[in-house]
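[User] I wish I could look at a protein chain and see how it folds. I have put the entry right below:
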Amino acid sequence: QVQLVESGGGLVQAGGSLRLSCAASGGTLSNYGMGWFRQAPGKEREFVAAISWSGGRFYYAESVRGRFTISRDNVKNTVSLQMNSLKPEDTAVYYCAADQSRGYYYASVNQDEYDYWGQGTQVTVSS
């Protein structure tokens, strides 16, 4: 099965930027939709951003629209999340996920539709 590994998390001050990356091993992400989700302490996991295999469909949570950008490199088999203008409320564990069934054309905002998940990477934004 496909294994996903996130990297790029860390500690930044409010207003700063981070770029998260997700790399696949044990397989490729061909035709998979990809998404980023996050879970803050004491809260449910929530949708952040998603992109289809083709790159022609993408969606962002209202809370991050205009600040975060999702992209993918299908040759390198990676997906990234560029996070700008970070706020303390962005503090969370960020997870990369892959949708093998619907991802060619579709970018799902529903975490139940994703099949593979990474272990997460911590993002902490200080005041």
Observations:
- DSSP finds no helices and eleven strands in the chain.
- The two ends are 40 Å apart (CA to CA).
- The mean pLDDT is 94.
